[in-house]
Backbone:
């Protein structure tokens, strides 16, 4: 018998925290903005759509699991809703995906996607909100030298890529510090890629749209970096990964706010490094990593380029696959692990930081590993100081995401 359609690998589901037992189904890649609330029975049916299950087999599996015989009309309705939501790996989704690619590459701008969700869409209201975060920024945990507007920008920083509402204190701390410095020639934003990258790296040389304007890409730097890496990889091959990624857009908005429309960025996405947790030391010998790191190092002399790792830290709770619920004990354990990791990160020790995560098999699910590792590798032994560490808990979703703001001035 003909197999039923297959669900897309990017789908995820969380149990609704309202006691109903229902599940929220969504696309974590952002390619589809649809969300479906489904019953446990329907969730089971959806989980069986692996591309090899026939209609009869699914009816038998459902009856065995639930004791209820799924009717054909019910199955057709489920599949139809999944198809309309672009949740199926089928021709309908591929046509949609191809149309998005064509739109992206034909547009000279990388269109903003986070306005109205991660930050306010109205330009004036957004500026007021950002300034409020700066004005209310907490004092730094580790104080540094007094800054003034004549000093060059620091060598590097680490900043969260969460929505502004949750991580406002961390954003305010970091950008209130940066505002005191002379703007650099460009900011190399090394952003977390939340979807897998075949080449691990994806560069975008498009200007980034933000509310009320654009933040320009540093075309000369981008072109030279592509050329230097061309013998090992094509940094532009996976540029489309930038279409729905938020980790760079969130920083572009802030940089425009503190330094104005003249600021330029070099948008680079970096994938995860979980393939090196078994042998962390080997990451330093990865050919693609070495090619990128050495290319950027060679390009820095004579240029005023500031590095920025757009990175969150731990992700804990049932939402992220943990059996433990978010509790004070769990948060304390997470902070201990985060601080051990940050101790190496602040000292520019890329391998030691990766070893810290590998020691517990990254059980706290740090998502900024790749971009922080690359930044530390480009600037080895450059010392940073911690401005603040935060644990952003969302109780109704039984999850917590941690983050830190770090500045490297030496």
Residues:
């Amino acid at each position: 018998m003909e197999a039923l359609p297959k669900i897309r690998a990017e789908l995820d589901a969380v149990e609704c925290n309202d006691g109903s037992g229902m599940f929220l189904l969504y696309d974590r890649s952002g390619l589809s903005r649809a969300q479906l609330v489904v019953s446990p029975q329907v969730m089971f049916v959806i989980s069986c759509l692996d591309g090899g299950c026939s209609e009869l087999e699914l009816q038998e599996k459902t009856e065995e699991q639930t004791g209820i015989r799924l009717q054909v009309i019910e199955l057709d309705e489920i599949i139809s809703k999944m198809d309309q939501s672009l949740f199926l790996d089928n021709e309908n989704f591929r046509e949609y995906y191809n149309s998005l690619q064509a739109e992206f590459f034909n547009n000279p701008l990388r269109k903003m996607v986070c306005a109205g969700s991660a930050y306010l869409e109205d330009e004036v209201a957004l500026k007021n909100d950002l300034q409020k975060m700066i004005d209310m920024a907490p004092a730094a945990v580790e104080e540094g030298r007094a800054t003034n507007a004549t000093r060059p920008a620091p060598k590097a920083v680490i900043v969260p890529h969460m929505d502004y509402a949750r991580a406002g204190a961390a954003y305010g701390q970091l950008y209130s510090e940066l505002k005191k410095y002379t703007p650099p020639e460009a900011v190399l934003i090394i952003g977390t890629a939340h979807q897998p990258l075949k080449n691990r790296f994806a560069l975008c040389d498009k200007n980034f749209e933000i509310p009320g304007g654009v933040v320009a890409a540093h075309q000369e730097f981008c072109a030279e970096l592509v050329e230097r890496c061309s013998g090992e990889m094509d940094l532009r091959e996976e540029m489309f990964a930038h279409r729905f990624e938020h980790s760079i857009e969130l920083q572009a908005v802030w940089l425009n706010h503190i330094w104005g429309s003249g600021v330029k960025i070099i948008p680079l996405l970096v994938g995860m490094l979980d393939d090196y947790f078994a042998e962390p030391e080997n990451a330093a010998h990865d050919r693609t990593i070495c090619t990128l790191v050495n290319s950027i190092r060679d390009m820095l002399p004579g240029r005023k380029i500031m590095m920025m790792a757009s990175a969150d830290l731990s992700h804990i709770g049932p939402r992220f696959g943990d059996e433990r619920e978010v509790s004070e004990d769990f948060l304390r354990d997470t902070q201990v692990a985060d601080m051990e990791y940050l101790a190496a990160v602040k000292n520019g020790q890329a391998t030691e930081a990766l070893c810290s995560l590998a020691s517990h098999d990254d059980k706290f699910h740090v998502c900024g590993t790749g971009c922080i590792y690359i930044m530390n590798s480009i600037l080895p032994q450059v010392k940073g100081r911690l401005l603040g560490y935060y644990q952003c808990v969302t109780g109704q979703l039984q999850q917590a995401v941690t983050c830190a703001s770090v500045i490297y001035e030496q």
User: Anything to note?
Assistant: The CA atoms of residues 18 and 396 lie 8 Å apart. Residues 109-408 form a domain with the Protocatechuate 4,5-dioxygenase; Chain B fold (CATH 3.40.830.10).
